[in-house]
């Protein structure tokens, strides 16, 4: 009589399955926590001021969230690959001023062409970051901290203390910045379209999955034949391109553009990503979690003034959220490592 036995799962496979299951549980718990925090914050603010949930207030929140969400999508791709891009706000400012300048200096220029100029500026800045980091092997934190100041300095040099007012820009361009479809701002719909595209790319496309592999273990990814430099370069180009698109939308929404456009936004972008569950050490997280983080940060920035909270504490809250999210990621990593060591001991 022949006895058929089911092949046992190798220890390494069990470890990977356990790690994935635990990570999935943690990320789901964090997403649920973000939703609960969002509901509680909105409810508390609405009870303090019923106008907080007026149609105009909701549109303002969605408009503010659009830019944060857009840049968070690009930042997610970079952070998943164990990188960081601190220059996104400076790239946004450079793109916004470049787009506004082109439109003001060439009145007959089609708006889509000017928008392409702004997006191209962002892509070029992202390529600079990518080449320096992926091929120059400069740490991402150092490289993008440097380009943060370089790109911002370039904006100040080009602006020369001047600004471009709304009266110098085409009416159609400005109208688009506040246009709505069924009450939802176009800018927010564009951000959602980018969110879905990036989410699909990271989940199903090979290059997107490669970024997770690089972030999880770069040496293992290299041994597996993953082209690490080109993947990292692509992630930074996407981040720069989306920051460039954010600059175009910034100019359309606000109309008046000067050298300080987007100044300080990088803190909110990083906060949205790490609070949304994208591990700052790379290898895990999703762009949809980052979207929840972006929405939560936007609501916080809009709700705290309504609640009469001092501006200092508004920034302190954002900083505290970043620290708490990183601490949680580190705790999860330590628990995973301890769990894997125990399983190894049981196997052997």
UniProtKB/TrEMBL annotation:
Part of the ABC transporter complex LsrABCD involved in autoinducer 2 (AI-2) import. Probably responsible for the translocation of the substrate across the membrane. This is Autoinducer 2 import system permease protein LsrC. The chain crosses the membrane at residues 29-49, 61-80, 86-104, 111-135, 141-160, 181-202, 233-255, 267-300, 312-333. Keywords: Cell inner membrane, Cell membrane, Membrane, Transmembrane, Transmembrane helix, Transport. It is a multi-pass membrane protein. One of its GO terms (cellular component) is plasma membrane. The complex is composed of two ATP-binding proteins (LsrA), two transmembrane proteins (LsrC and LsrD) and a solute-binding protein (LsrB). It is found in: Cell membrane. GO terms for molecular function: transmembrane transporter activity. It comes from the Bacteria.
């Amino acid at each position: 009589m022949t006895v058929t036995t089911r092949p046992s799962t190798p220890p390494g496979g069990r470890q990977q399955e356990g790690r994935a299951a635990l990570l999935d549980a943690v990320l789901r718990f964090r997403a649920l926590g973000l939703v609960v925090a969002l509901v509680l914050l909105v409810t508390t603010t609405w009870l303090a001021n019923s106008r907080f949930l007026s149609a105009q207030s909701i549109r303002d929140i969605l408009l503010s969230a659009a830019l944060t969400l857009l840049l968070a999508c690009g930042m997610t791709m970079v952070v998943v690959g164990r990188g960081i891009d601190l220059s996104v706000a400076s790239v946004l400012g450079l793109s916004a001023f470049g787009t506004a300048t082109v439109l003001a200096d060439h009145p007959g220029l089609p708006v889509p062409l000017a928008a392409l100029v702004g997006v191209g500026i962002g892509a070029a800045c992202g390529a600079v970051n990518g080449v320096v980091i992926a091929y120059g092997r400069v740490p991402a934190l150092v490289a993008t901290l440097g380009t943060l100041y370089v790109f911002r300095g370039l904006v100040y040099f080009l602006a020369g203390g001047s600004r471009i007012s709304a009266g110098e820009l085409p009416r159609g361009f400005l109208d688009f910045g506040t246009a709505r479809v069924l009450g939802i701002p176009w800018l927010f719909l564009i951000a959602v379209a980018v969110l879905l595209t990036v989410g699909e790319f990271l989940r199903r496309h090979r290059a997107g999955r490669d970024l997770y592999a690089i972030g999880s273990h770069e040496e293992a990814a290299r041994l597996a034949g993953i082209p690490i430099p080109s993947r990292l370069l692509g992630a930074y180009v996407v981040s720069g391109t989306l920051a460039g698109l954010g600059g175009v939308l910034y100019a359309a929404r606000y109309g008046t553009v000067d050298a300080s456009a987007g100044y300080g936004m990088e803190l909110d972008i990083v906060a949205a990503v790490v609070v949304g569950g994208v591990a700052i050490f790379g290898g895990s997280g999703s762009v949809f979690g980052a979207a929840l983080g972006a929405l939560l940060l936007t609501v916080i920035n809009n709700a705290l003034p309504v609640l009469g909270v001092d501006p200092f504490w508004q920034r302190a809250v954002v900083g505290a959220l970043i620290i708490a999210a990183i601490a949680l990621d580190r705790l999860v990593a330590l628990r995973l490592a301890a769990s894997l060591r125990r399983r190894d001991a049981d196997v052997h």
